[in-house]
């Protein structure tokens, strides 16, 4: 397929104003060493709070800027990104949040230098996470092989079409875990860049941070995300389904200890759907599952303070769904 651009940068926005959008767009406009004829930027208004016009950005002379506005109710970041994908003319896709920015003026050049040496399914760089705690800002660098967040990554359009991956319409949170995780897991050709190219700015009202980290308590959505993941793997990589199911069972057991479920009944309904849908691979509480639980607890600091004593009971309660 012939592409008109090398990369399409897709930026959903909802509550951000023109000033905030100018910040993220300026961080693109100020990039050096790249051919701006090979870049398009697609702003996707997800039922935007404030009216935004292309004329608001006339000073950003380097940008081939498009706008698409979703009217009515907000659809969330995932479906807004999908709307941008459906309009994109680039060989690669890159996603930015409207309240973030590139880390430095050579960020895009890092990707261009890789792309000119050959095509890849994914190109993954590192990003900086800004946090605010006890009156001070702190900064953390993502792992070299981050497979969870959409930031600092290029996705090949050909590759996504080949595996049939889109942003899931039912996920308004954990949508990155689904999309990015599947893309990275199935990619046979990922190039890693050991440079920090992107800054995820602190925003106290973001989906992740609002209402005292509300999303950490949405265990029913976490169960749904894992169910959709297993559906995808059943078609593409069935041999890994049991290990992915075991990961979910152990992880959600710990999650429910770290944070009480926002709605316990909703969790058990979603969890039941996952268990029943995967009854053909269900193994129950096995020595392998117990060993995996110990290894996950060793790897994840947030789980180390919690007991594994209730894991077998949790698995038994889950298994009861198969007998009802």
UniProtKB/TrEMBL annotation:
Instruction: Supply the CDD domains for this chain.
Output: Glyco_tranf_GTA_type (cd00761)
> Per UniProt, what is one GO molecular function of this protein?
hexosyltransferase activity
Q: Which Gene3D superfamilies match?
A: Spore Coat Polysaccharide Biosynthesis Protein SpsA, Chain A
Q: Which SUPFAM superfamilies match?
A: Nucleotide-diphospho-sugar transferases (SSF53448)
Which residue range or ranges hold the Glycosyltransferase 2-like domain? 8-163
Q: Please state what the protein is called.
A: Glycosyltransferase 2-like domain-containing protein
The protein's organism comes out as: Pseudolactococcus insecticola
């Amino acid at each position: 397929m012939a592409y008109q651009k090398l990369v399409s940068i897709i930026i959903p926005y909802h509550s951000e104003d023109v000033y905030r959008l100018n910040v993220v767009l300026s961080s693109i406009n100020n990039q050096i060493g790249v051919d701006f004829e090979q870049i398009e930027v697609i702003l996707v208004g997800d039922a935007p709070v404030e009216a935004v016009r292309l004329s608001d950005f006339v000073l950003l002379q380097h940008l081939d800027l498009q706008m698409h506005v979703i009217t009515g109710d907000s659809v969330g970041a995932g479906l807004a990104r999908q709307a941008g994908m459906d309009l994109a003319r680039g060989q690669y896709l890159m996603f930015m949040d409207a309240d973030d920015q590139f880390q430095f003026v050579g960020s895009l050049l890092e990707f261009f230098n890789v792309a000119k040496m050959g095509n890849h399914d994914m190109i993954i760089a590192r990003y900086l996470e800004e946090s605010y705690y006890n009156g001070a800002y702190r900064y953390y660098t993502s792992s070299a092989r981050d497979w969870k967040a959409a930031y600092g990554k290029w996705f090949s359009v050909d590759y996504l079409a080949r595996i049939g991956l889109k942003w899931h319409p039912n996920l308004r949170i954990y949508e990155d875990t689904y999309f990015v995780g599947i893309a990275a897991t199935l990619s046979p050709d990922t190039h890693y860049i050991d440079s920090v190219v992107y800054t995820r700015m602190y925003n106290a009202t973001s989906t992740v941070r609002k209402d005292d980290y509300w999303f950490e308590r949405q265990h029913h959505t976490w169960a749904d995300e894992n169910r959709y993941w297993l559906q995808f793997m059943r078609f593409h990589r069935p041999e890994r389904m049991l290990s992915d199911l075991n990961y979910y069972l152990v992880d959600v057991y710990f999650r429910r200890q770290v944070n009480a479920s926002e709605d316990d009944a909703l969790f058990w309904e979603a969890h039941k759907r996952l268990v029943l849908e995967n009854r053909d691979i269900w193994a129950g509480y096995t020595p392998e599952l117990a060993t995996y639980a110990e290894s996950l607890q060793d790897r994840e600091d947030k789980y180390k303070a919690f007991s594994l004593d209730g894991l077998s009971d949790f698995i038994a309660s889950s298994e009861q769904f198969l007998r009802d």
